[in-house]
Write a structure and sequence with these properties.
heterodimer; A: MetI-like fold; two-stranded antiparallel sheet; globular; B: 270 residues; 11 helices
């Protein structure tokens, strides 16, 4: 292997080892340490000078106490469960909102499609934080939505939406919508229109042709879109913290507060490790789906 | 033939209304004379003036811009190298780990990336500031860059590079005169993606920044938590305006570049 090839592989490799893998191992290690009132606030601390015996002592004093603590305190498992529930429901809602848009785009005249694509992608480039913030002014008690509903006479007292779970759902659907639309649009756009004609010639109504032909063919896109929404929604922090109330428990927020407010690094690290373990399942399923699609494309 | 029916028209109209009305409202209310964001009290540009006099915001904007430019440039170099390794380098020791480390940060929750980097910086005693945010941003953006660049690299004809080698090019020459021009649009979009990811990031920056290095999203977040404010609306409007112009310019130029490249390929073919 010549030098330039070694450098080419070595530089990004080393970068990722130092700034991705090692930090992750540190989190794993701290999650097995004990909380201690010191700086940094955990023990034991790694001490190379003690030599091999020191390392053995050190490894011996690691334990799963923090994980036991997570299992004991209902705060944590309710937070995990409620994150899973919120992520699942909002993924489903995003699908309900996103599918008709993707379908409309794929059926639009061909010369419109690049512009429609552009219109879907544009909000994705604008700041996430700003798009979440935009809803704060709309959903508050004196907000525009309530003003509008009172003006139409539908309600007489303002609805409380901001700082509830409804606002979190709205926020997730709104910000992750492009992730749902784009993969579905990609599969629908490739869909051969003559298949639908054939189905209709064979006596299908338009609706049954949709159920029997369009939907099954769009399945890979739907699955990809669902994972692209579900995975980041599960660890979401900004949306529950700005739009949700104190009763909206999401694990990303719990981790943040454990670290920044309670300064309990060991528990925060254990929370992070469990969150990753939960994410491994959807991520593997997502990769399988992608692989199947790639093989189908060949 | 698929038909463009009333159903499609309605779903597109409602869908795009949903996507754009909140942003539109945000922009409109940035020109509101009232301090109360939800009550319209006439047109005014006073909040833009206040914003320009607010030094904390200006400082944060400067830090953010610095971080974004440096980190996205590092990310582009590293990400392009990584893409090259993934697509062209064949087998080497630890390849599975390497590609795992490229794809894992894409799905890693931001809170975990932030937490793990912070714990690293503390463990090695690195003082937190602009430098640590740059390191953090470059690390997660390089993965996005390498995905964008490697998909372009996988799709172009490797024999072009081989021809360059046959004609006596060294590795670097072949890269500079054959590969780079072909993957340039992907490299540029990778840079833009890394740049916006960095501009946008709140969570990782919050973990890795120090007291002297507040970025704009951190500043926005801490003032937004207290409630809606017209100054933030004005700031948002400026950001939205810049992004829109940037994306439109980038898409028009990349379309032209692709059209030009196709033209040249056709000319070369005929």
């Amino acid at each position: 292997m010549n030098l330039s090839r070694r450098l080419l592989i070595g530089i990004p490799y080393l970068w990722l080892l130092v700034l991705f893998l090692i930090p992750f191992l540190i989190v794993l290690k701290i999650s097995l340490s004990d909380y201690d009132i010191s700086i940094p606030p955990y023990s034991p601390k790694f001490d190379l000078s003690a030599g091999w015996e020191g390392i053995k002592d050190y490894l011996g004093s690691l334990d799963f106490e923090n994980y036991a603590f997570l299992a004991d305190d209902p705060l944590y498992y309710t937070a995990y469960l409620s994150s899973l529930k919120i992520a699942a429901i909002s993924t489903f809602l995003t699908l309900l909102v996103g599918f008709p848009i993707a379908y409309g785009m794929a059926s639009a005249p061909e010369e419109w499609r690049p512009s429609l694509m552009m219109l879907v992608i544009l909000p994705f480039w604008t700041s996430f934080l700003i798009r979440v913030y935009a809803w704060m002014g709309i959903l508050s008690n004196e907000g525009l939505l309530n003003q509008f509903l009172i003006w139409t006479g539908l309600i007489s007292d303002p609805l409380v939406i901001l700082n509830t779970i409804t606002a979190v759902y709205i926020g997730i659907v709104y910000t992750y919508l492009p992730f749902m639309i784009l993969p579905i649009y990609a599969t629908l756009e490739k869909l051969d229109g003559s298949l639908l004609e054939a189905a209709e010639d064979l006596g299908c109504t338009r609706i049954s042709a949709f159920w029997l032909v369009t939907l099954p063919l769009a399945k890979p896109g739907i699955i990809a879109g669902c994972f692209l929404v579900f995975i980041p929604a599960l660890g979401e922090f900004v949306i529950p913290s700005l739009l949700g109330g104190s009763d909206t428990l999401m694990i990303g927020k719990v981790l943040w507060e454990e670290f920044f407010s309670n300064r309990d690094w060991t528990v925060a690290s254990a929370v992070a490790i469990i969150l990753l373990l939960i994410l491994v399942v959807p991520i593997i399923l997502f990769q399988r789906n992608e692989q199947k699609q790639r093989e189908a494309a060949k | 033939m698929r038909r463009f029916t009333w159903f499609n028209t309605i779903s597109l109209t409602l869908g795009f209304a949903f996507l754009y009305i909140p942003i539109l409202i945000l922009v409109i209310y940035s020109f509101n004379a009232s301090k109360l964001v939800t009550v319209w009290a006439g047109f005014s540009t006073q909040w833009y003036g206040e914003l320009l006099r607010n030094e904390a915001f200006l400082d944060a904007a400067w830090v953010t811009l610095k971080v974004a430019v440096i980190s996205s440039t590092i990310a582009t170099v590293l990400g392009t190298m990584a893409a090259f390794v993934l697509v062209r380098s064949g087998r080497f020791f630890g390849r599975t780990l390497f590609s795992g480390m490229i794809y894992a940060p894409l799905v890693m929750p931001e809170v975990i990336t932030g937490l793990s980097l912070l714990l690293l910086f503390i463990a090695i005693g690195l003082e937190r500031g602009v430098f640590t945010i740059v390191l953090a941003h470059a690390t997660f953006s390089m993965c996005y860059v390498s995905v964008v660049v490697s998909s372009r690299m996988a799709s172009f004809d490797e024999s072009l590079e081989e021809a360059a080698y046959d004609l006596g090019c060294t590795g670097w020459d072949a890269f500079k005169s054959v590969t780079l021009p072909i993957i340039a649009p992907a490299v540029i979009s990778g840079w833009l993606l890394a740049f916006t990811l960095s501009l946008d990031d709140l969570v990782i920056a919050s973990f890795t920044s120090g007291p002297s290095s507040t970025t704009l999203p951190i500043k926005i977040y801490s003032s937004v938590r207290l409630g809606v404010s017209p100054e933030i609306n004005a700031l948002s409007t400026i950001i939205i305006g810049l992004v829109t112009v940037g994306v439109l310019v980038a898409s028009v130029t990349s379309k032209r570049a692709i059209a030009l490249q196709r033209q040249q390929e056709r000319n070369a073919g005929s």
